[in-house]
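Tokenise the fold.
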Amino acid sequence: MKKHFAIRVTGKVQGVYYRASAAEQARKLGITGFVRNEPDGSVYLEAEGEEQALQQLIAWCHQGPPRARVDKVLVEEKELINFTNFEIRR
């Protein structure tokens, strides 16, 4: 069943290719949505897809790309929006 999660990642996650890596990971898993940097230094994702794929993305978010240091990953379930692709937003 398709689900929609809002994911906020804190730590050293800006300036380390976190958004580009997250987008690549999401596309590989067939997940749609977006990722963006937030003014507070966190990274915010909205992701839709099959629950198993979303759980894999969330697991990846806890690691991030090699230069990232992830402190916390907060996940909240939301209403489906039916995104058509996965994009990096500024």
Remarks:
- The mean pLDDT is 98.
- The two ends are 30 Å apart (CA to CA).
- The first strand starts at residue 2 and ends at 12.
- The domain at 2-79 is CATH 3.30.70.100 (Alpha-Beta Plaits).
